Amino acid sequence: MSGIHVSFSSGPALAGAGLRLVPGEIHGLMGENGAGKSTLIKTLTGIHQPDAGEIVVDGVARRFSGPADAKAAGITAVFQDERLTDNLSIGENVMIGHELRGRFGISWPRTHARAAEMLAELGLEDLDPRLPLRSLSPAIRQLVAIGRAMVDRPRVLILDEPTSSLDLGDVARLFTVLRRLRSQGVAIVFVSHFLEQVLTLSDRITVLRDGRTEGEYPAGRMDRAELIAKMIGKDIDALRQIGSDRREHRKQPTGPAIYRAVGIGRKGAVSPTDLELHRGEIVGFAGLRGSGRTELASLLSGVERPDSGEVLIDGEHAEIVDPVSGLRHRIAHSSENRREDGIIGDLSLRDNLVLGLQALRGWAHPLSAAETDALVATYVEALNITPADPDIPVKYLSGGNQQKVVLARWLATRPRLLVLDEPARGVDVASKVEIQAHIAQLAKEGVSIVYISSELEEVVRLSDRIVVFKDREKIGEVSNGPWLTVDTIVEMIAADTTDDDATDDAW
Fold first, then answer.
1. What is the pLDDT of residue 506?
2. Architecture in CATH of 2-233
């Protein structure tokens, strides 16, 4: 693809974009939200037709009038919202539209047998094609979608955010499948906002910015900061500084703990746990989803009520049994699900931002218009929230700016302890950089922060100390430093048993 231009009624989406693919290679396609990634892959698969530019396959210029033309040329895609049919089996989903027929119609035994052969080619011999799809995890559903795409024997397979709902073990299995396809000569386009995954998996990376191809790079010669710099057009040296001091010179806790949990737990959620938090310290929580990391965070702030243990704030017993009691002790909690537990889409930016402070004051003591306007102006500027219109319904903001509004809501309560669960998940790279830079600045100003992320690289880079969870309990705690890597944390999580020595002293 070269010189691709695509415009919609709202304006140009692509303005000279290109993409070069070769057999047996995994090609990362990167760019901020709105950079043109989706439009480019939809153009390659025939969903959109370009206004200018050309698509060349094996030296021959092609024009796809629809997805069928692209499939005939050996190009297929598995999109993020790929629709599978829950009430069908694995095999029926894989072979839909390609069912094998017998004398009296579709032969389901032959169809399931062929599906099993297709899955085996992907290294998925353990999947029984007769199992109902509804019983499967998101990871297996993703593999089934890839299996269905491979029935057509495509030469180019495009994957749009295939790991967005997967945990570490699931991602590893998916990567094994993709590397197997690469070895079979398939060209794979990998689109993801997980930067470390793209750098780890890809052979080459194409970066889009503002609808144009910024460049094409060997993945092995780029690091995270360089990739972000290409995507957002910012200075690379400034990007390298975010959190880097915590790797080289971690913050040493000074003075007594401001928050101490002793045996705090909740049956069925997380085992009784001890934890200390100090002023200005970022403590990362690492573990798979359901490991206890989110569950403990909810108990620390009063989102959920513990049924064991005690909380001490500045050495004094504190009753933290609901979010309002948490706020009264200057503890704020930003949930991992901003759409369900964070933003209220139909309310304005202004109303969303002041919800936390208004809840703390009580609805009998409303904020004045002057107070509200001052708060909104302060945090819109501090967090670079755009558009900076206080009256815009927050549902019209990008995911990154919605997340900034949620963060601003809790900062307005002036917390001493801020619990952030997946604060940068699903946001564009520029917003992620800004959010993480602000978190680091809050710690410098003395705010204690609990930071939870499925991207372990983020946790390692930003945290002074990391608490590791598995099977709903804390299994270890390590101080950050140059010796600590993502692999160290992964090995702790993957260990068969809890290592009682997996604490600071062991590192």
1. 36
2. 3-Layer(aba) Sandwich (3.40)
